[in-house]
Specification:
This protein has 281 residues and is of the alpha+beta class. It contains 5 helices and 12 strands.
Length: 281
């Protein structure tokens, strides 16, 4: 049980080292086949374990490629993006993705985004995130645990997130609670963490509990995912250009100074959103 008499129990809920390593291995696989089949996008397929559904490429752009595959026993898809940026450093991009306070400024879809609790053993954090969904749907709220890792030796950065339940965040009738959610982001610098250029691999799935058919939801997600990544990229560029204060998650000082809680976010009113404006944590 994740909760016991109103207390969150970390055992079985924290992100373990094995989950981070699996994500890192997926990135290594993509890099290997990318070098083998350079220029042949149709053969650049993510790894498929025995018994798993094959991946289908649904978008092939200059700087990223997007795949999906059905999640067995559901009407949902899992998505995977493999791409690169050359005008921002891995450190800047990673920090902007992790900094909840800065995201409240650059992401207009955020209603709430708070750190609820932090696990001192692993650095895992429980996050409560409320986001606008396309009109006329209700806003969605997510409670999830996340953990990141920076592997200096192998020149790799990993962020893993998945849904949990937490006694401090009961369901709110104003929002639809998303209980099925997973995300893995892996970043490989082209050179170092502080020089421009990196490849990234984002794997994502959730169940937003909509009544739309699979093809409609797939269109919204496949449109929204590249849009979110570009907003994240733009926010990183803005922070770099304006020298904005973004918490440095790669520094030891940044880790030691973590309080485990973030200031409460102001609640914003409802607003209409375009179908492509779905968000990814």
């Amino acid at each position: 049980m994740a909760t016991l008499a109103g207390v969150f129990v970390w055992d079985g809920q924290r992100i373990e080292e094995e989950e981070l390593q699996r994500s890192a291995q997926e990135m290594k696989h993509m890099e290997n086949i990318s070098s083998l089949f350079q220029g042949d996008a149709q053969r650049l397929d993510p790894r498929v374990e025995q018994g798993e559904q094959p991946w289908e490429m649904i978008m092939d752009k200059k700087y990223f490629k997007l795949w999906r595959r059905p999640i067995e026993g559901t009407h949902l898809y899992q998505y995977r993006v493999f791409g690169s940026y050359t005008d921002v450093t891995p450190r800047q991009f990673f920090n902007v993705q992790l900094d909840t306070e800065y995201r409240k400024k650059w992401d207009s879809l955020v209603i709430k985004l708070d750190v609820i609790e932090r696990d001192l053993a692993t650095g895992s954090e429980v996050i409560h995130w409320v986001t606008h969904f396309p009109y006329p749907m209700y806003s969605r709220d997510y409670v999830y645990v996340r953990r990141y890792s920076v592997d200096q030796e192998n020149n790799l950065m990993v962020l893993v997130s998945r849904a949990v339940e937490h006694p401090s965040v009961p369901e709110d009738p104003e929002y639809v609670r998303v209980r099925t959610y997973e995300s893995q982001m892996v970043i490989r610098p082209h050179k170092t963490f502080d020089e421009n250029g990196f490849d990234y691999l984002l794997t994502y799935s959730d169940n937003p509990q909509t009544v739309f058919p699979r093809y409609c939801l797939s269109w919204m997600v496949s449109s929204g995912m590249p849009d979110f990544l570009e907003k994240l990229h733009t926010a990183a560029l803005k922070a770099k250009k304006l020298e904005l204060e973004v918490r440095d998650y790669l520094s030891a000082k940044g880790l030691e100074g973590a309080e485990g809680k973030a200031p409460a976010a102001e609640h914003k009113g409802e607003g209409s959103r375009s179908p492509a404006q779905l968000e990814y944590a």
